[in-house]
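In line with agreed milestones, the collection of sequences with tokenised folds has grown. One record among many is set out beneath this paragraph:
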Amino acid sequence: MKLLEIRDLDVRYGHIQALKGVSLDVAEGEIVALLGANGAGKTTLMRTISGLLRPHSGQVLLRGSPIQRTGADAIVRLGVSQVPEGRRVFPTLSVLENLRLGAYTRPASEAAQTLEQVWKMFPRLLERREQLAGTLSGGEQQMLVIGRALMARPRLLLLDEPSLGLAPIIVRDIFRSLRQIRDQGMTVLLVEQNARMALKLADRGYVLETGNIRLQAAASDLLASPEVQASYLGHAASAAG
């Protein structure tokens, strides 16, 4: 079953068209990787899905229902959580307080159960639960924002550049956690600079270029594609050390 459908989506910033007739699907329980260079429109697409941007035209469908005119808060309540680029924690709140904020749409009893699952996935956060989020390392902050998004128990998790700016050893830890999320059956749309790791994790992938979908295929086919190798996998390999 298709959980997310994007149909002919146009998004503009004034006279600049950031997305041009973009269409893609994400099935229930699937991980889909979205690749592209800086400025290709990846973050614009994620922000549009989560209700932070309104499209000029086209549709965003969640389980068949249009949400492109729905507010961001209501979209969270419908089961969509975004982990934005840049590790945006609440720096003056503790790790535990940050996580509890992620569960603001849910009953306290359910939130407590999910919190235990987050502790198991990220034991380092449990060790630092009373520490101010702003004093965590970059990798720990990334774990925290992923954990905070999971606290809402989303149907769809939007991950925007989870490895950006992190050391290779921390990137491996983050992707180990993403594999756990995949194994639990979570549906994920993943924007990631490390194309090789993203495609090894994903079921399918899309390549976005200057606001257009350039390629779409099974992740294994994109890994083997000379065009993708030339444009993205060489960079990913060097970034991974």
